[in-house]
Amino acid sequence: MSIIEASGLTKSFMQAVKEPGLKGAVKHLFVPKHIEKVAVKPLDLRIEAGEMVAYVGPNGAGKSTTIKMLTGILMPTAGSILVNGVNPYKKRMENAAQIGAVFGQRTQLWWDIAIAESFSLLKDIYHIPDAVYKRNLECFIELLGMDEFMHLSARKLSLGQRMRADLAAALLHNPPILYLDEPTIGLDVSVKQKIREFIKQINQERQTTVMLTTHDLGDIEDLCQRLIIIDHGSIIYDGSLSEVKARFARDRMIFFQLGAPMPEMLKDQLLLIPGLRLARQSELEFSVAFDRNEYTASDIVSRVMKLGEVVDFRMEDANIEQVIKAVYEGNLDLGQSREEREVLSVHAVH
Ligand SMILES: Nc1ncnc2c1ncn2[C@@H]1O[C@H](COP(=O)(O)OP(=O)(O)OP(=O)(O)O)[C@@H](O)[C@H]1O
Ligand SMILES: [Mg+2]
Q1: What does the alpha-carbon distance between residue 164 and residue 113 come to, in Å, rounded to a whole number?
Q2: 228 Cα to the center of ligand 2, angstroms
Q3: Ligand nearest to the CA of 13
Q4: Exposure letters 165-204 (e unless 16+ CB within 10 A, then b)
């Protein structure tokens, strides 16, 4: 059995429909109108213990709604969930003991209490043994650099400090499962890096299962081997990060630096090679983009070297940002059709 299992998981919300302006607001007061919004369409999910999974998708795709159902905050409209054998919304206490959750948009800490006090309250709430608490506290303070703000209340913390405190709070009771909903939102690069390193270490040392939603694709590249992409409430891809790159991003680019300008005539010879796209950066620099399924990098390099005096070259694969953008936009040039993608997502499910 997988540590997180959901099947046919669905969530609909009733959303108020108001006509614009004061007239609409008054009308809505007397004759309220609602439409049903299906935020998460029936979806199946299996996550294995120790996995670190990125759950990504455009704004409004249904990520937070899914996480809220998995954590037991929201009750599903339909479907079933078992987290470590526990139904999260029926056995809330039992579930709380085995999960940690960080919602980047909102703190879970007490607003007016010093962080040190909040932690000690959590110790009592979760019945954390003294030795475990002490060890975790020392370790988290050091790894997350929290010394300077342990005496401040959550209200007084900067966003980056607050996020570190939230992360530590979520892990004090050694939960085997950690849900992170945009844990790096709005953070500067160095705090982001600290948080990523910390999550990585927790996952490696404690085999904590991590499910992470993020719009920062650096988080994904740094942390996750598995990627689940959700769009309009349905999973459109579930598989490895490297596979999504290989399947959706066939473009490669090589940048060349020349010792002497290449005569236009020779460049034209390159242009004659089908499928190659040339872009000139300067007299002595240009790039060649090609489909990795049609040409190998050495193929391209050797052809260019025959034509000009190459002093240096570097290769660039499409980055994950371009890949995800292409998947969101259903860009058929980069991969396959939507139908093929659906098949892929079904086959790639672990
Ligand atoms: N409590 C609610 N009542 C009504 N509609 C809601 C509620 N919560 C979410 N929704 C709707 O459900 C859809 C999915 O929202 P959700 O917050 O899950 O998106 P998300 O993928 O987390 O997006 P983001 O990247 O912006 O955080 C949205 O259309 C949103 O308006
Ligand atoms: Mg969200």
Answers
A1: 16
A2: 15
A3: 1
A4: bbbbbbbbbbbbbbbbbbbbbebeeebbebbbebbeebbe
* pLDDT bracket for residue 348 (50, 70, 90): very low
The pTM assigned to this predicted structure is 0.80
What is the average pLDDT score of the chain?
88
Name which residue sits closest to atom 19 of ligand 1, judged by CA: 60
Contact 214, 52 (CB under 8 A): no
- How much is the pLDDT for 136? 97
Amino acid (1-letter code) at residue 5: E
Does residue 39 have its Cβ closer than 6 Å to ligand 1? yes
User: How many angstroms is it from 68 CA to the middle of ligand 2?
Assistant: 10
Looking at the CA of residue 14, tell me the nearest atom of ligand 1: 4
- Are the beta carbons of 180 and 213 closer than 8 angstroms? yes
282 lines ligand 1 (CB under 6 A): no
Distance 189 CA to ligand 1 centre (A): 27
| pLDDT value for 318 | 67
Residue of higher predicted confidence among 336 and 86 = 86
How far is the C-alpha of 336 from the C-alpha of 206, rounded, in Å? 38
Q: What is the pLDDT of residue 5?
A: 97
Q: Give yes or no for residue 216 having a pLDDT over 60.
A: yes
Q: Which of 13, 34, 179, 228 to mutate to test the pocket of ligand 1 (most atoms within 8 A of CB)?
A: 13
pLDDT of residue 342: 41
CB burial class (10 A; 0-12, 13-18, 19+) of residue 61? Answer: buried
Average pLDDT on 45-57 reads 96
